[in-house]
Amino acid sequence: RQQRDRATVDGWRYRISWKPVSETPAATLSGTWLVVVPASGVADTFAESVSAALQRHGADVVRLVADETDLAPGSLAERVREMATEPSGIGGVLSLLGVDERPCTEHPVVSRGLALTLMLVRALAEADIQARLWCATRGAVSVGRSDQLTSAVQAEIWGLGRVAALEHPRIWGGLVDLPETLDERAAARLAWALSAGDGEDQVAVRGSGAYARRLTRVTVGNESAERVWRPRGSVLITGGTGALGAQVARWAVREGAEHVVLTSRRGPSADGVSELTAELEALGAEVTVAACDAADRDALAEVLAAVPERYPLTAVVHAAGILDDGVLDGLTVDQLAGTLAAKAEGARHLHELTAELSLDAFVLFSSFAGAIGGAGQAAYAAANAYLDALAQRRRAQGLAATAVAW
Length: 406
Ligand SMILES: NC(=O)c1ccc[n+]([C@@H]2O[C@H](COP(=O)([O-])OP(=O)(O)OC[C@H]3O[C@@H](n4cnc5c(N)ncnc54)[C@H](OP(=O)(O)O)[C@@H]3O)[C@@H](O)[C@H]2O)c1
Prior knowledge:
The chain is of the alpha/beta class. The chain is 38% helix and 22% strand. It has helices at residues 2-12, 44-56, 75-83, 112-127, 152-167, 184-194, 243-255, 273-282, 297-305, 333-354, 368-372, 378-396, and strands at residues 14-21, 32-38, 60-66, 90-95, 133-138, 172-178, 202-206, 209-217, 234-238, 259-264, 286-291, 313-318, 361-366, 402-405. Helix 9 (297-305) runs parallel beside helix 10 (333-354). NADP nicotinamide-adenine-dinucleotide phosphate is lined by residues 238-239, 241-245, 263-266, 270, 293-295, 319-322, 341-343, 346, 365, 367, 406.
């Protein structure tokens, strides 16, 4: 049976890997490149080095500075249209907006970078610009063990970008993650990426080379697991009254958890809670059901503080989430905020509030849409890309973390 289970799991598992791209001759860019930068100086030095890199490789550069006033529908489209009157036309668009991690004033769970990137995609489609959009980030991906993923927030740009690629293939260029310092070689690699070198559209530029993102199969084979998780003590399951959360609760109790804490916004008034509680109690566990919005840090802290000493918290499963799908052309920052709140903000709070505990498991219910994209799911993809990145960051810090992207 064990062998059959392994074979089944082998058929399901993939991982993201980064393939070194062989060094290519210097690429030349042509025409005018629109470099879109965030206001207030957050990326000034970066913008200067990126602009200089583009110029050295043949591009004329014009800069478009975007701020929160450009979140108004139509604002960026109008500004882009004005700039497209450049005599040489627009050769390409490189957005550095993603590096602006500051919260939006109206929707603090959304970074200004993500909100403005959404507006930029919409603007380019609306303005009917015949040029491709590349979105740059810094530290949003890790190409290997010695390469730190430093920004889970910027990983959201990758989630949204993969959906833009599906919904707007005509204007989509790609995603490029850049190092802190753009030396000569990194600049050449950036120019190569922007000239769509080898057709790669998800690229990381590093001191050691350029890397292209790949989805590769992972086989467990006969290897034994790095560590085996046997639920014990208390297990917190956010979204624990939902479809998958309830299944996880049943599994955790059957496998040994003595106490499960199930949270959701409706908590005890969610459908089927009394039946679920009775079922779990019949299996021998104590059950706490709490109404707690995962995005509400204080409420989550209260839930954690109420975990009884006799059953210390040993694991967290973050299964809270909502879907609020819509194509990018009509997607609002409000929709981004709603989707990010439960998943990304909830995960961040759980991570911060439990960082001092030595948890056996910290499981994030992510999604295939975050890893690969899905038309109409930009908000959901951004939120799940955050979860995947957070899990990577935690692992790098030696903390338990598993993001299941299904
Ligand atoms: N089902 C799938 O096929 C699938 C595939 C890939 C990934 N996932 C992920 O797996 C997770 C569970 O999915 P599911 O199918 O079980 O969905 P579900 O039945 O809708 O359950 C989601 C749960 O999350 C709770 N929730 C939503 N927003 C919350 C918030 N802000 N704070 C706390 N709780 C919140 C909901 O309850 P309230 O409304 O009462 O808050 C509900 O209990 C989700 O994160 C989803 O993205 C599911």
